[in-house]
What does this fold into?
Amino acid sequence: MTKVKNAVWITGANSGIGRSLTHQFSKQNITCIASARREEVLKKMKSEFPEWQENIELFPLDVSNTDEVKDVAKQILKK
It folds into this structure.
């Protein structure tokens, strides 16, 4: 397992400000932990940045579900 030095967790990463932040951080070689409710839209967003895909990790998530947030946070820390 590779240890990540710089990472940011972005919710709402598939559109708007979240999408833009994911793009900008990944260009700066910062690992983006990208979350949003719809996994298929997250995958599409990631595919639109082929040169930085290795810097984007997808973790689908509905932030209105507290238990889901806790579970995903544990998954991220484990990875």
